Amino acid sequence: VATAKGSGIKNITVTLTDSNGMTLTAKTNSFGHFRFDGIAVGQTCFVSVFSKRFTFDHQTQVLTVNENLTDIDFIAQE
């Protein structure tokens, strides 16, 4: 999770909801990184960001988990 200039944003709430309706929540670290463990391969998940301060063009992304995903990016509007 980053600003439009590429700086990581700390303490952004990221929520993952799997195809069974289970919801996991994480907070971003000072680099804007977040992590969810234990998501089964083959599931379709919704990943969303929430912030009181920032808005995002694409607040929710739909993903199919194939393996470790490292390119889930949310960029804040300026």
3D architecture notes:
By secondary structure, the protein is mainly β. Helices cover 0% and strands 28% of the residues. A four-stranded antiparallel β-sheet has the order 2-1-3-4, with no helix packed on it. A hairpin with a 5-residue loop joins strand 1 and strand 2. The protein is elongated. The two termini are 13 Å apart. The relative contact order is 0.29.
Question: Any key phrases for this structure?
Answer:
78 residues; 4-stranded antiparallel beta sheet; 0% helix; mainly beta
Residue-averaged pLDDT: 92
* Residue share in β-strands: 25-35%
Count of separate DSSP helical elements: 0
Shape: elongated
Give the strand line-up of the largest sheet. Answer: 2-1-3-4
Order of SSEs: EEEE
Number of β-strand runs:
4
Query: CA-to-CA gap between the ends?
Result: 13 Å
Major sheet size, sense and barrel closure: 4 strands, antiparallel
Q: Structural class from helices and strands?
A: mainly beta
Give a short summary of the structure.
The chain has 78 residues and is mostly beta strands. It has strands spanning 13-17, 23-27, 44-50, 60-64. The protein is built from no helices and 4 strands.
